Amino acid sequence: MTSSPSHSVVHEANNTTLRPTPKEFFERQPRDGHLKDLNHYYELYEKSIKDPEGFFGPLAKEFLHWDRDFTKVKSGSLKHGDAAWFIGGELNASYNCVDRHAFATPDKPAVIYEADDEADSKILTYAELLREVSQVAGVLQSWGIKKGDTVAIYLPMTSQAIVAMLAVARLGAIHSVIFAGFSSGSIKDRVNDASCKALITCDEGRRGGKTVNIKKLCDEALLNCPSVEKVLVYKRTGNPEIALKEGRDYYWDEATKNFPGYLAPVPVNSEDPLFLLYTSGSTGTPKGVVHSTAGYLLGAALTTKYIFDVHPEDILFTAGDVGWITGHTYALYGPLALGIPTIVFEGTPAYPDFGRLWQIVEKHKATHFYVAPTALRLLRKSGEAEIEKYDLSSLRTLGSVGEPISPDIWEWYNEKVGKGQCHISDTYWQTESGSHFIAPIAGITPNKPGSASLPFFGIETCLIDPVTGVEITGFDVEGVLAVKETWPSMARSVWRNHGKYMDTYLNPYPGYYFTGDGAARDHDGYYWIRGRVDDVVNVSGHRLSTAEIEAALIEHQGVSEAAVVGINDDLTGQAVVAFVALKDESAEKVNGKETSEEAFALRKELILQVRKEIGPFAAPKSVIIVGDLPKTRSGKIMRRILRKISANEADQLGDITTLANPQSVAGIIESFGVQFGKK
């Protein structure tokens, strides 16, 4: 182990050591690793940056099946927002993830579905997956769904979600998966923005032993979704009380039996969209991030293989939902493009007990496990007794996703789950990047607990001074994390709003991709991610727009203004704290009585308002009723001050005399002290 030199800026790196991959990792490899050593990584990385055409062109031909070869590897730039890769090529994502493996290894498991109730679990082989995907695609095609159309999917984490996504892609259509925890209002907004022609959903969901009313939420949303003509409903629970709308709704099992088990895939252009995935925007309106077919698929396959050290014999268990990018890339497209089994888990880490994840690992001899730190914090709180019940010796690579993993959780993950014998890959990436930006390559990159480590091939990371916009060179430095050149799996646009795409990602620092995160680079060139620098909070790995939550709060008749900030939380990473100023009538009822029954009822109403408009995961941990919000002289709310107060750093506010209402700050500090944590 090599100790890092002292850092004056990157304090996280002080007293850290480079941790090599344990020898047991290599003993468990079914065959030689994909890279020889760290020097080999540096050689390939340098080539990927200096000669991206020569690097990615051959890899695209090796990893993907093409119906028509591409004529040029890349064009366009970050400056102009016109990136394109593998120009002129044609392919189909469904064929790449299903058909070619069904032909070569028909009986190999493709989707290992672990249901909330284990008795409902099943395994789909690649041959069975091809038949199910073709039949659902047949239904959609009979409804008139064709290349370029958009189809919404609102399903829990079941095998049907995987089948639905691949069926849409098979037709050259564009899927838009909506997380099955979103409210009817959020469904409506996303369906309407994408002008979806059809919706694929289920009657009810099962999660943590409880039943979730999936179809009911969809029915409420579809009252105001004129573009949706047809709805395919999978019978997850078979509740006979679930109503179907005649002429619009059709049950999955009844509709698919009318179609054969093979439907030819429709080739699409490399740059044709594969899917939309809505992410929180700083303006409050969700952005439909557009991912292309070829570049995204290649990024998913490359990072799955190299970052995790995946081989044909392996089984990948990504404990993430397809409603988010992690489920898209590392539960579906990455593993299936490589022809390996993927474990799809419907339930929660705590049901029927805290050993469920480890029971799944043992049952299927999973070699790779990928999860958010939120789940790890929950599991650590529950103790190690459940871990010790199961044989986890099949594991080789442990991954972390959604937020930086703290050194203490890293150590717990390493010692208690990996037994000190696995490689840990703390992966940094985004919905917009499509695949990993920065992550240690399993078996190659020495680890520093808490650091995302080194960038993946083709990702030319840098740090920018947020004031001057100038790139910061050298080591032991900090700034805004950016990327200097395009890469294959980057998002191409925001659906029907390229201006928003430019303004959000490419215009803040012209010529660079703006990640929205602050970071530091230590003496070894390792990156340490420090969190958002824009108005987004990260709760349990879910990026939530503060503006979207604020908009939901302001819809309450008693609220005049609202400001939302994120605070550190031991369980969820960050939690939402809402500051609200009330309209006169409401203010008269609670001002000076912030701990009264009236104030309690109002705070409860506001939390429920957010749950209803967005979803339970966005609900504020605390609502602080204040007399006024701090504003600049131009009227902008100073959330920086609210963040400081929420972090108990009110003594570090700096000069507030330039505010239009500096007197408001003392009242906010007092209100926070009285109300935080109060119901």
What are the salient characteristics of this protein?
679 residues, alpha/beta, GMP Synthetase, Chain A, domain 3, 8-stranded mixed sheet, 7-stranded mixed sheet, 21 helices, 31 strands, globular, AMP binding, Acetyl-coenzyme A synthetase, ligase
List the helices and strands and how they pair.
Layout: H1 23-28, H2 38-50, H3 52-63, E1 72-75, E2 84-87, E3 90-91, H4 93-104, E4 109-114, E5 122-125, H5 126-142, E6 150-153, H6 159-170, E7 174-177, H7 184-194, E8 198-202, E9 205-207, E10 210-212, H8 214-222, E11 230-234, E12 249-251, H9 252-256, E13 268-269, E14 273-279, E15 287-292, H10 294-308, E16 316-318, H11 325-338, E17 342-345, H12 356-364, E18 368-371, H13 373-381, H14 385-388, E19 397-400, H15 407-417, E20 423-426, E21 461-464, E22 471-472, E23 477-483, E24 493-494, H16 498-506, E25 513-521, E26 527-532, E27 536-539, E28 542-545, H17 546-554, E29 559-569, E30 573-582, H18 584-590, H19 597-613, E31 622-626, H20 639-646, H21 664-675
Parallel strand pairs: 4-17, 6-7, 6-8, 7-14, 8-11, 11-12, 16-17, 16-18, 18-19, 19-20, 30-31
Antiparallel strand pairs: 1-2, 3-13, 4-5, 9-10, 14-15, 15-24, 21-22, 21-23, 23-25, 25-26, 27-28, 29-30
Helix pairs in contact: 2-3, 4-5, 4-6, 4-11, 5-6, 7-8, 10-11, 20-21
Biased composition (Polar residues): 1-19
Enzyme class: ligase
Protein name: Acetyl-coenzyme A synthetase
